[in-house]
Design goal:
The structure holds two protein chains of two kinds.
Chain A: E1 5-11, E2 14-28, E3 31-35, E4 42-46, E5 49-55, E6 60-73, E7 76-86, H1 92-104, H2 108-123
Parallel strand pairs in A: 1-7
Antiparallel strand pairs in A: 1-2, 2-3, 2-5, 4-6, 5-6, 6-7
Helix pairs in contact in A: 1-2
Chain B: H1 3-60, E1 76-82, H2 92-109, E2 113-119, H3 121-129, E3 136-138, H4 147-162, E4 172-180, E5 186-194, H5 198-205, E6 216-218, H6 221-304
Parallel strand pairs in B: 1-2, 1-4, 2-3
Antiparallel strand pairs in B: 4-5
Helix pairs in contact in B: 1-5, 1-6, 4-6
Classes of the chains: A alpha+beta, B alpha/beta.
Chain lengths: 124, 305
């Protein structure tokens, strides 16, 4: 059996995803970071961006994460986000509409949120 | 129908209507408690993970962050009181307000100025009635608080604590809310959110004695702590809001249950009185008829002679 790490992706109001994975890629403030089993203990600040989780079954889970933290120790990884959505839960059309709206209202935060959602859907 | 009987009948009808309303409110509150409890549970993983992260950074990084170090001479404190928008919840609000007043008095006796922040119309009304100034207040979401509401509350509080005390900032942040112990027990509690006491946080995380790993911080320990602590405060406020909401619904349920029971007793008593009044009326009618016929019989007997 390949080495695994246990992943908990939690949003402020719910547990979004949890399970075993072989690789997790997330975007921290200083760049993308990939975490594999046996990584050195890590605590970082996340940028909003897509998080890619390669599960031990070989499937890929993508989630849009808007700010938060990544913490890893003892092969347990937790991704804490105020808002996190799995790519499957994202309504692409709605996100596109939100992007249009945010652009016309020049709401930078909303624009970035919609953009992250769309990127998460695109990687799916 | 006699006047007395009519009065009883009318009162029975109005109490029955009231009983129906309180019964409905009781059932609504009961279903909301369950929902609110579920929300408390759903927010727990985030809070535990966050607490663990805070413990890790704060013990791993040996630097002095304004949010974790105690001021040598605290002169000003902020108290955040969580009450509810609506009443009809027994002693729920008055208990929370009482706890806040006690805390305020205690802080003032220790020589601190106290800024009061209030959530919920009931608490605001209490302070407005006494014409005491509030630093800030929020309403409209106490029944079903969202995380965004917690963020809204936390923002000015964090700003106040980061400011210098001389410019109107605060040294300490206390929170008063109603802890949901069980369906029957809810207690008003006070807690100091900031400055963070690490022993307490570690106790909460339940891992005081275990050896913590040496973390690699990305980008740096200070930056992580800077980003982490506001989130921690938000998450604590969110949790307190949810507990308060659950407690409020439980208190409403209990208050409405006793109101329903009382209405039932009242209806029983009134029906008994109404029955007695009806019997008295019948007895009176019978005695009138008997008396009347006796008088009539006497009169005819007299005329026969």
């Amino acid at each position: 059996m390949a080495a695994e790490l246990h992943v908990e992706l939690v949003a402020a109001d719910r547990n979004v995803w949890s399970g075993e994975a072989t690789l997790v890629i997330a975007r921290t403030t200083s760049g993308d970071i990939g975490v594999m089993p046996g990584h050195q203990p890590l605590l970082g600040v996340l940028e909003s961006g897509p998080v890619t989780i390669r599960t031990s079954e070989g499937a890929t889970v993508v989630a849009a994460v808007h700010g938060g933290f990544i913490s890893f120790a003892d092969d347990k990884l937790s991704l804490l986000a105020e808002i996190a959505e799995l790519a499957d839960e994202i309504d692409a059309q709605r996100a596109e509409r939100a992007l249009e709206r945010a652009k016309s209202e020049s709401d930078a935060a909303a624009e970035r949120r919609a953009d992250v959602r769309l990127r998460a859907v695109a990687v799916r | 129908m006699g006047a007395q009987l009519r009065v009883y009948k009318r009162r029975i009808k109005s109490v029955t209507a009231t009983k129906k309303i309180t019964k409905a409110m009781e059932m609504i509150a009961a279903s909301r408690v369950v929902k609110a409890q579920r929300k408390v549970q759903a927010s727990t993983p985030y809070a535990t993970e966050l607490t663990r992260a805070v413990t890790a950074v704060a013990t791993g990084a040996n630097d002095k962050h304004p949010l974790t170090t105690e001021a040598e001479n605290p002169t000003r404190a902020a108290v955040l009181l969580l009450s509810s928008d609506r009443g009809l919840a027994g002693a729920f609000n008055s208990n929370a307000i009482k706890a806040a007043e006690q805390l305020t008095r205690k802080l003032e006796s220790e020589g601190r100025e106290v800024d009061i922040y209030v959530v919920g119309r009931r608490g605001i009304a209490h302070y407005n009635f006494r014409e005491r100034k509030l630093a800030d207040s929020w309403t409209g979401f106490t029944d079903q608080p969202e995380y965004a509401d917690a963020k809204k509350i936390a923002a000015p509080l964090i700003e106040a604590i980061e400011k210098d005390t001389a410019d109107g900032g605060v040294d300490e942040l206390h929170i008063v809310y109603t802890e949901f112990v069980s369906m029957m027990t809810q207690t008003a509690v006070e807690a100091r959110l900031l400055p963070l006491s690490l022993d307490e946080v570690a106790k909460e995380a339940g891992e005081q004695d275990t050896l913590r790993p040496l973390y690699d911080f990305e980008p740096s320990a200070e930056d992580v702590l800077d980003a982490l602590l506001p989130r921690y405060v938000e998450s604590r406020i969110y949790n307190a809001l949810l507990q308060s909401a659950a407690s409020k619904h439980a208190a409403t349920r209990r208050a409405m249950k006793s109101a329903t029971d009382n209405a039932g007793d009242l209806i029983n008593n009134l029906s008994r009185l109404a029955n007695a009044a009806r019997q008295a009326e019948i007895t009176q009618e019978i005695s009138e008829i008997v008396g009347g016929s006796a008088a009539l019989a006497d009169a005819t007997a007299g005329s026969d002679k």
